[in-house]
Write a structure and sequence with these properties.
The chain is of the alpha+beta class. 23% of the residues lie in helices and 30% in strands. The chain has seven helices and 14 strands. Strands 4, 5, 7, 10 and 11 form a five-stranded antiparallel β-sheet that branches. The chain has a four-stranded antiparallel β-sheet with strand order 1-2-3-6. α4 packs across α6. The two termini are 40 Å apart.
């Protein structure tokens, strides 16, 4: 679980001016305000549970409890122009996304948003938790206003975020191959026979799909080792590929530029083959 806290004391390079108090980094509107976000990651790496907590900002807490504000998280990908907004009346909700729609690990922006027009709010420093400069001030809060804004988060890249599965009619049944595309960031283009492509689109519990994906991941890692050694002159890598390298290192795995890197070993560490249980073997 990862926890991120936003408060007025948090540093920020720029704070926009608002006609009403907002809880965000560097904004003194709620001097004791704290916006805490807990990210509970799932193993599939395409979803997580997000818990929002507001403290020291009674105005926002009251709007949430009376149904005049909602918990929100946007999911976006600049490369693919993907954008989706998750809205919840509950502080704990699930955020998910489709890997096929993304060209990089998505960006997540948690926030609290007003869902009603509030045209005449008389603020109180004591009751609302706002700074004294807002005390006894009348403000209007339009519908859709962001009342609290968390940091923009981008999780580290798994190799699945870098894959694009494509149909190749020229392949024989069961065949695939892997190329690299670098026009819009880095991406593995996995070309598959139509039936194999269709098979991989449907999640299954028989383990066959997982074994095939482990084989594909091995091929992708071998391509990195073969063709994408880091340029010693400028050390540059596409942003999402550099993020994937950090992902490997944080899992205690070597990257493809190291002599101890074995594509099959890393692939089966990330996505190990699952063997049938004793009961399943006995019944076969």
């Amino acid at each position: 679980m990862n926890v991120i806290v936003t408060s007025a004391r948090s540093t920020s390079n720029a704070v926009r001016s608002h006609p009403f108090p907002v809880l965000e980094a560097g904004n003194i509107s709620f001097p004791k305000g704290r916006y805490t976000l807990e990210f509970i990651l799932n193993q599939d790496r395409t979803s997580f549970k997000l818990r929002h907590r507001i403290a020291g900002a009674n105005l926002i807490s009251r709007l949430l409890s009376t149904g005049k504000a909602r918990y929100v998280c946007t999911v976006s990908s600049p490369i693919s122009s993907y954008r989706r907004t998750h809205v919840s009346s509950e502080a704990l909700h699930t955020i998910d996304w489709d890997l096929d729609d993304l060209g990089e690990p998505p960006l997540f922006t948690p926030m609290i948003v007003g869902i009603e027009d509030l045209p005449d709010c008389l603020l109180s420093a004591r009751e609302d938790g706002v700074h004294e400069i807002w005390d006894m001030t009348r403000v209007s809060i339009p519908k859709g206003s962001r009342l609290a804004l968390g940091q923009v988060i981008q999780f580290q890249s798994s190799i699945l975020h870098l894959m694009s599965l494509q149909v190749d009619e020229g392949l024989s049944a069961g065949q695939f191959y892997v190329d690299a595309e670098t026009e819009h960031g880095f991406q593995f283009r996995v070309s598959l026979h139509p039936e194999l492509h269709q098979f991989l689109q449907i999640p299954r519990n028989d383990g066959i799909r997982r074994h095939i994906m482990t084989h594909i991941v091995t091929a992708c890692l071998a391509l990195l080792q073969r063709e994408f050694q880091q340029d010693p002159e400028n050390g540059s890598l596409p942003r999402n590929l550099d993020s994937f390298r950090d992902f490997l290192k944080n899992d205690g795995l070597p990257d493809w530029s190291e002599s101890r890197f074995r594509p099959e070993e890393v692939a089966t560490k990330l996505y190990p083959h699952v063997l049938p249980t004793e009961w399943e073997r006995a019944g076969s």
